[in-house]
Amino acid sequence: MKATIPDNISEEYYQISTEILSSFPKYRPPVDLFRFREDIAQLQPYTRKGARLTNEQVEEVQRMCEAGDLFVSRSDHPIYSQHIVHQLDLVLVDKNLKEGEVADIFQQALALRVNEFIDQPVKPVFEVLYRDVMVLTEYLWQDKHRVKQFMRRLHREHSLAKHSLNTLSVGLWLLVTSMGDNLKRRDLDRAALALLLHDLGMAKVPAFILSKSTPLKPDEKDKIPLHPLVGAKIMHKMGLAFDELRQCTLEHHERLDGSGYPQKLKGEQISRLGRICAVADSFSAMISARPHAPAKELVPAVQELAADKARYDARYTSLLLNALVTNAFGTTGKPKTEAPAKAPAVAPAGE
């Protein structure tokens, strides 16, 4: 008969699933392990992180896990989350993670994958990134409202990976909100990948240009408008030329009045996803501190975009403006914090 676990324990401890346990090093778990004692209705320390288990302990740990009696402290969340970052599909089976904790893990994992791909844009590295993006879309497909957690975690300092994550979060929220029940899983999968990689070409712009705090010289400035073409070329060489990726890569700097680049597209010549990416990209850039410009606050930034109806699609700027003005995301732009729950009693070892 399965033990009855007091509800308050899950506030301070994770109940480890068999999938999570099997991903740990067999003899040296990276976290402190606790076992639930039904006779005293408390958790009891079982083994310390890094301690070597005997064969008997390995078997006992497995039995406790299968019975639902094996826990790890939430104080070990940094270790626990770093472990899952490298095996991201574990978030789909760990039902004890809170949505905010899952969003943090996705942020860490995808930033890692984007940086790896920027450093080495080759097919094997892309395939690892693709796998993790598909884990994200599976997670969001199960409950599309989860995208709000990502909108609460927008980065306010600029790097290419952080900008990519911000654009992904904002773009997916706009896509999910504007399409509603008409959104297909295939659309979500492709849009997520395209939004994340929309600015890949910027990786080929010399770092000294991107880090300058003074006005660019004409020859330096000329290198910037080439990055959409460079990004599209990189992806095409890898055989990744599906419409959504092409649209985000080539159209995120196009503007409705034809003042954008690189193709000077106008109005309906710009795809729906291209328009969404344009709003998400510009907003993400505006709210992040860059060498040549300080970060703007969220509402003033989107107000500026919403006022520019000649260049940005008002359907999407209005959606974002209304959400931010009404604080639809909670603590938008700041990591979500939760009041620590009172820890349940933990029985001393050996009780």
TrEMBL record:
Domain annotation HD-GYP: ranges: 139-337
SUPFAM superfamilies assigned to the protein according to its UniProt record, in alphabetical order: HD-domain/PDEase-like (SSF109604)
Signal sequence annotation: none
Residue ranges of the region described as Disordered: 331-351
Coiled coil: none
The organism's place on the tree of life at top rank: Bacteria
Protein name per the record: HD domain-containing protein
Species the sequence originates in: Nitratidesulfovibrio liaohensis
